[in-house]
Design brief:
four-stranded antiparallel beta sheet, mainly beta, 1 helix
Length: 139
């Protein structure tokens, strides 16, 4: 009887030890939105989504030879004075960390830019005010 209890206890401890693998979970990526003509404060700077220059991305539900890209402009200001204008091109697949764009101000990385939404649609023209940039902070 004693041997059976000891065997059962060892078996239980063995299962418990092997049942829990330690896996380091990654922090989820949280994207924020910057709408057209809106601004955000990054350190001492103001970053404004100032213009959608072109949007040649393939509309939803259409088969295209070229996937296209969206070209947009960010205006960077400090103390109310425009210090630079940055232009970015984002292909329609920029959802991955490898494909993200980086915004540098005075040589320092400030934001990661992932995508511009909404995608074009065949049936309707997208108003500029509907556009927004998906971005994340550096940390």
């Amino acid at each position: 009887m004693w041997k059976k209890c000891l065997f059962g206890l060892c078996l239980l401890i063995g299962f418990m030890g092997f049942s829990q693998e330690k896996v380091n979970a990654e922090t989820p990526l949280i994207l924020k939105k910057l709408f057209y003509q809106n601004s955000l404060i990054v350190d001492d700077y103001t970053v404004k989504f100032s213009e959608v220059i072109t949007d040649s991305r393939c509309p939803k539900g259409v088969t295209c030879i070229w996937a296209g890209e969206v070209v947009f402009e960010l205006a960077i200001s400090k103390n109310g004075k425009l210090i630079s204008t940055e232009t970015f091109k984002i292909p329609p697949t920029s959802y991955t960390i490898e494909e993200r764009k980086a915004l540098f101000i005075d040589g320092e990385l400030k934001l990661y830019l992932y995508n511009v939404l909404p995608f074009p649609e065949t049936e309707k023209q997208t108003e500029k005010t509907a556009y927004y940039i998906q971005f994340s902070g550096v940390n």
